[in-house]
Amino acid sequence: MKLYRIFIPKQYNDGKKIEPKKIRKLTEMVRERFGAYSINPFAMLPFIQGVWTSEETHKLYTEPMFMIELFVEDTFKNQRWLKSFKERARQELDQEELFVISQNAEILKDY
User: Number of structural domains, the chain?
Assistant: First the structure.
């Protein structure tokens, strides 16, 4: 199993707020594909933000964001879908980069 964390910015690179309907469209795509997702509640707070410098333009970005978390089977098909989703979301939200992190995960079971 894999735990994927998809970092979704709340604003465009120019600082303007991303329209909620664009965010809903992306989260709906994830729900339709995997049946569920979680949004990290701590990432909804205003002081959680990403800070990074573009390698291309050397511009410093400070952006609030939230995180979608998925716990899914580790399959090539899921990896391919998530890579495609990342690129589509990056383009839809007009971002230089969009981060998706994966880590091995398992559900602890009572024995």
Answer: 1
